[in-house]
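Audit log entry. Action: structure prediction of a protein-small molecule complex. Ligand: S-adenosylmethionine. The ligand was supplied as SMILES and no pocket hint was given, so placement is left entirely to the predictor. Protonation state taken as written. Sequence taken verbatim from the request; no trimming, no tag removal. Recorded inputs:
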Amino acid sequence: MSQIKSKERVTDHGEVFTNEREVNAMLDLVKQETERIDSRFLEPACGDGNFLAEILRRKLEVVKKRYGKNCLDYERYAFVAVSSIYGIDLLPDNVEDCRNRLFNIVMEARCNGCKGEGDNRFADAIAYVLTRNILCGDALTLKQEDGEPIIFSEWSFVMGNKVKRRDFRLDEMLEGNVDVGEAMPLLGASGSLTTEWVYDEETQAYLPLPIKEYPLTDFYEVGK
Ligand SMILES: C[S@@+](CC[C@H](N)C(=O)[O-])C[C@H]1O[C@@H](n2cnc3c(N)ncnc32)[C@H](O)[C@@H]1O
């Protein structure tokens, strides 16, 4: 596959895609994380998703090995694998390509990953999550094209098939990116008081409060 689409795009946006060998070599540096179904990855200039696609493939291999005998389990964990992967790109066509690519990987893996029917709502649920997790925006300003802040959704299974969605502003999450045990930042760069922080047991980190929380929903019904 070509690593560039056009000279103009290289000049204007530094768009040179990473080839498969380098992608794999880099991901092997964090191999254990790429094989953990629920590990969260954010690629801030994802292009058409070279890194995210490989991470997804690796996670889905694990889903197949562990849950391939039961389609509903398979789909539940495939949802976990996809919903923990995030990307941002400046160019709308790359965002679209990335979403489609990840969607096709899941659907192909679903066919080969477990025999049997599964649920016919699965494809829509995955497509919806990808519209929320792969976003068009500027990873430097942390804003979308319309100037609004980039907002990501956290998806977590709470009980059975029920998933909790909480939306966070990316700029606020990055502001709180401190090691556990370090003092929490109470002042922003400007010296003013910033967001309110809460300690999150799951991620073992301080997180800002979500800007929106959604009622528990069956994962097949997200976006409905
Ligand atoms: C060098 S390519 C890398 C794409 C992909 N990560 C890969 O390794 O194949 C850079 C990508 O970053 C995007 N990009 C450039 N500036 C950006 C910015 N400020 N915010 C988000 N994406 C940006 C471009 O549109 C392009 O898709």
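Audit: result stored. The CA atoms of residues 74 and 194 lie 41 Å apart. The mean pLDDT is 89.
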